[in-house]
Every structure is written in structure tokens, then in C-alpha cells.
Amino acid sequence: MRVYRCRICGDPYIGNYPPSHCPFCGAPKEFMVPAEEWRDENDVELSEISRKNLEQALELELTNAGFYRAAMEKSKNEYFKAMFKALSKVESEHASVICKLLKIKKPEIPKIDASDDDLENVKESFERESKAIKFYTKSAQEAVEARVKEVFTVLVNIESTHLLLDEGTEKMFKN
């Protein structure tokens, strides 16, 4: 057994091998490093544009986490409950990563409403994730700090996997 840490969120993982994705933030395997090699890369002097984009990203991640929490609580289906719970945790972890860069305490996740219909919530999830991808792509291009650019780029990758999950779930339950 070994201990690995995610270069994006910093959380530790114990296993014989690194996971395919960080179980906490969803970063791809290449961001999982042996714990002894991990370094905190979040002490970055932020440009004005990066600070503004990170603050907007924090709001986006917190409201998405709140939406997924509400969708989980309203669902009567175990698959959807599990999916929305996992997505809420991942979005909350993204908020934590952003707070580390902003050097602030993480705010509470807001109460957000969700539909009573699981497939309607999947559609809203798709819209929310698409909006995040568009914003993070722009933010990565605007970032002048290598670490901020890296975090936004990885967030695009992670949110893209959420789109694939939404699409696959919708197909699975529509039929």
C-alpha cells in the first residue's frame, strides 16, 4: 500500500496504485503523485483578472454543489441519489481548491432548489456543467499564473466528464 496525493486538491489516497481519477476532486490520474513528492502549489500572487475569475468560479461551484445536494435529497432512485451526492461532493471539493488559491475560508454551500424529476435535474446538470466548461476555458486562457491556468484547465477536464455522465445517465433512464 502507498499514499498518493492529488496535485489539484491535495487530498490523500491510500492504495496499491493511484486511482484513474482523484476520488475527491475528479482530477485525472496523472495528477495523483506519491505523497512524498507532493508540494503545495497554491501560494500564488494572483492577478486582478485571475482573482475575479476565481471568485466567480467559487460562486459557480458552491451553487452547483447546493443544486446537486438538493437533487440528491429529492430523488427517490438510488442511482440518482448516489450520482447527485458524488457530484455535490466533487463540486464542493472544487470550491475548496479555489478557496486555497484565494486564501479564504470556504463559505457554506447555499440552499438551492431542484426538481422532483430526476431527468429534469440531469438536464439542469448538463446546462450547469456546460456553463462551467465555457467559463473555465475562458478563465484558463486569461490566467497569467501557471497554477491558476492549470487548475482551470483541469476543471474543464473534470466538468467534461460530468457532461458524459449526464449524457449516459439520460440515455440509460430514458429507454
From TrEMBL:
<feature type="domain" description="Rubredoxin-like">
    <location>
        <begin position="1"/>
        <end position="35"/>
    </location>
</feature>
<dbReference type="InterPro" id="IPR012347">
    <property type="entry name" value="Ferritin-like"/>
</dbReference>
<dbReference type="Pfam" id="PF21349">
    <property type="entry name" value="RUBY_RBDX"/>
</dbReference>
<dbReference type="Pfam" id="PF02915">
    <property type="entry name" value="Rubrerythrin"/>
</dbReference>
<dbReference type="GO" id="GO:0016491">
    <property type="term" value="F:oxidoreductase activity"/>
</dbReference>
<dbReference type="InterPro" id="IPR048574">
    <property type="entry name" value="RUBY_RBDX"/>
</dbReference>
<dbReference type="InterPro" id="IPR009078">
    <property type="entry name" value="Ferritin-like_SF"/>
</dbReference>
<dbReference type="InterPro" id="IPR024934">
    <property type="entry name" value="Rubredoxin-like_dom"/>
</dbReference>
<dbReference type="GO" id="GO:0005506">
    <property type="term" value="F:iron ion binding"/>
</dbReference>
<protein>
    <recommendedName>
        <fullName>Rubredoxin-like domain-containing protein</fullName>
    </recommendedName>
</protein>
<dbReference type="InterPro" id="IPR003251">
    <property type="entry name" value="Rr_diiron-bd_dom"/>
</dbReference>
